[in-house]
């Protein structure tokens, strides 16, 4: 009978283990704030969705409305991997409604106009949404028309790639890039003159295609060029220097102060404007295009954008620490559309959301907010398949590593690659649900 | 990363392997561990002959674990770029070795217990 006793002991042990495991995940029980506030969030992307999930946990009775016509939710940090053939296009796609909490309303329409004086948003069907608090999180628009001769139906053909344009275009980009990987020739990788999402992505694409070409044994046939309108390779000087060294090591030629103006897809020629304003023409076998990026029309027409900064781009005029609008204290900007010096990444969104949440709840509770945003941005800079640098920095160009002494920010590490390739999407999803 | 909670870690592993494969592996690991504890408590001693064979399986477990992780993450050994990578890789190999030893020891004990001694 001793076996039975042992089995019973064992079961007790298993039960104890299960109890321990469940005790390890305590839920924060916060008292909800009662309010009848009407909160409108324009945009149900990463920022709008994460904020909505957090607000429903903080507020009781608030009417939260999200305005966004997009059916698909895109995990944009994955586009670089799709465009290098490392993930399929559907890796980045889910449904907007998959992530929204109960108790919020989604108006699946485009916001057409914002009247900050009467506190109202009008949708494309003419529906009027009055608000007490407004959060602007519509993301940004890619201005493909700004590049003469370019259109999205060219992507994937004639050696043209454009991974920012979405999952199917990222997959088509890999079609064009993989031909370059096999056949070699001249590859030109560009970056726009405007503010942009994830300034590391143009570099990552260059590094990845270089590495894949090398591993395919065709590096000798390939000539890689990186052309950018800026004066340096990255906004943070210490990172720019590191990238300069890596490009030197990988044999990538750089052309700074070169802005892509037009392409001739038939002749495979790209025209750049250099610092003196003169035309520089370059032939290519593979060209990666990232177009200028601007705030959506509804923001640019609303009178809520900066009047003296980024006037061609229209980012929302807001305080860079609180993200609150400088002229309307019931409006916040969140994510790509915010007119702050850095932070058009999902990692920034993760840091910004709790700040706007605190600002909004504080306004409802009539207290002073305590959370501030320091410009944190994270960029797992892939330098080859299997290695990356986990670069994190703030408004002041300081490196702010999450794991100091363990994961060195300026070193090409396998563990940083693991973070980008496997851990990032899970962390992103947890953020969408308001859990991270 | 701002906060690394137990929930986030679970979500990360679900993402790496897919929820189905991940929880199957967790269930297998739990079953093998419980079975190992069971034979230890039942036999009330370590059978050193069985332990010897279990030790022989350790290098295979280590190699299998490393191969599995590299395959799942589009990586190769040449990607190890610094001390933390080597430590992580040793940890993975160590976990594979210990896992294989426990598995082999438990399997022997369970199989042999059924035979008359």
One letter per element, helices H and strands E, the order of chain B comes to HHHH
Q: What structural class do the secondary elements of chain A suggest?
A: alpha/beta
Which of globular, elongated, flat, extended, rod-shaped describes the shape of chain A?
globular
In terms of structural class, how would the helical and strand content of chain B be classed?
mainly alpha
CATH superfamily of the domain at 144-292 in chain A: FAD/NAD(P)-binding domain
Helical percent range of chain A? 25-40%
The total count of strands of chain B amounts to 0
| Tally of separate helices of chain B | 4
Low-pLDDT sequence parts of chain A = 1-27
- Topology, number of strands of chain A: 24
Q: What composes the largest sheet of chain B?
A: none
Helix coverage percent of chain B? over 70%
Count structural domains of chain B: 1
At CATH level 2, the architecture of the domain at 144-292 in chain A is 3-Layer(bba) Sandwich
- Give the DSSP E fraction of chain A (strand runs of 2 or more residues): 15-25%
The residue ranges of chain B in which pLDDT falls below 50 over 5 or more consecutive positions are none
Which protein chains are joined by the largest interface, and how many residues does each one contribute?
A-B, 38 and 33 residues
Which sheet architecture does the biggest sheet of chain A show?
A: 5 strands, parallel
Number of helices of chain A: 9
């Amino acid at each position: 009978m001793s076996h039975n006793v042992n089995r019973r002991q064992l079961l007790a042990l298993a039960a104890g283990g299960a109890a321990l495991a469940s005790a390890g995940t305590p839920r924060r029980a916060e008292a909800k704030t009662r309010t009848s506030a009407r909160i409108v969030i324009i945009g149900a992307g990463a920022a709008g969705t994460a904020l909505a999930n957090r607000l429903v946990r903080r507020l009781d009775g608030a009417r939260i409305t999200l305005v966004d016509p997009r059916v698909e939710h895109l995990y944009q940090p994955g586009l670089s991997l799709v465009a290098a053939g490392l993930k399929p296009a559907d890796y980045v796609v889910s449904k907007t409604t998959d992530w929204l909490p109960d108790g919020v309303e989604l108006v699946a329409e485009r916001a057409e106009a914002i009247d900050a004086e009467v506190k109202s948003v009008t949708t494309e069907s003419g529906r009027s949404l009055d608000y007490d608090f407004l959060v602007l999180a519509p993301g940004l628009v890619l201005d493909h028309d700004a590049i003469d001769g370019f259109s999205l139906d060219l992507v994937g053909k004639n050696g043209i790639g454009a991974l920012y344009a979405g999952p199917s275009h990222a997959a088509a980009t890999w079609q064009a890039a993989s031909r370059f990987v096999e056949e070699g020739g001249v590859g030109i990788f560009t970056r726009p003159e405007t503010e942009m999402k994830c300034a590391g992505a143009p570099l990552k694409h260059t590094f990845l295609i270089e590495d894949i070409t090398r591993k395919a044994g065709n590096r000798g046939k390939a000539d890689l060029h990186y052309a950018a309108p800026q004066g340096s390779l990255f906004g943070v000087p210490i990172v720019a220097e590191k990238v300069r060294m890596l490009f030197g090591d990988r044999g990538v030629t750089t052309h700074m102060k070169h802005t892509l103006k037009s392409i001739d897809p038939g002749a495979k020629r790209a025209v750049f404007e250099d610092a003196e304003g003169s035309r520089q023409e370059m032939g290519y076998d593979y060209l990666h295009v990232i177009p200028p990026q601007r705030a959506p029309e509804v923001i640019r027409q609303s009178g809520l954008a900066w009047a003296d900064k980024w006037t061609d781009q229209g980012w929302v005029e807001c305080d860079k620490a609180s993200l609150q609008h400088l002229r309307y204290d019931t409006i916040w900007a969140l994510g790509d559309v915010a007119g702050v010096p850095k932070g058009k990444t999902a990692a920034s969104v993760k840091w910004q959301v709790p700040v706007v949440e605190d600002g909004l709840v504080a306004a409802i509770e009539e207290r002073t907010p305590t959370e501030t945003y320091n410009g944190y941005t994270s960029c797992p800079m892939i330098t080859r398949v299997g290695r990356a640098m986990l670069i994190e920095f703030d408004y002041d160009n300081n490196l702010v590593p999450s794991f100091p002494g363990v994961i060195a920010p300026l070193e090409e590490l396998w563990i940083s690659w693991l973070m980008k390739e496997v851990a990032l999407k899970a962390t992103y999803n947890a953020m969408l649900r308001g859990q991270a | 990363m701002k906060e690394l909670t137990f929930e986030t870690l679970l979500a990360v592993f679900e993402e790496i392997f897919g929820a189905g494969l991940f929880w199957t592996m967790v269930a297998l690991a739990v079953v093998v561990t419980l079975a190992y504890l069971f034979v230890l408590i039942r036999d009330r001693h370590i059978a050193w002959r069985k332990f010897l064979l279990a030790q022989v399986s350790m290098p295979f477990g280590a190699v299998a674990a490393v191969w599995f992780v590299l395959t799942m993450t589009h990586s190769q050994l040449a990607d190890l770029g610094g001390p933390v990578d080597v430590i992580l890789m040793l940890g993975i190999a160590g976990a594979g070795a210990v896992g294989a030893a426990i598995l082999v020891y438990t399997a022997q004990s369970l199989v042999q217990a059924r035979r008359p001694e």
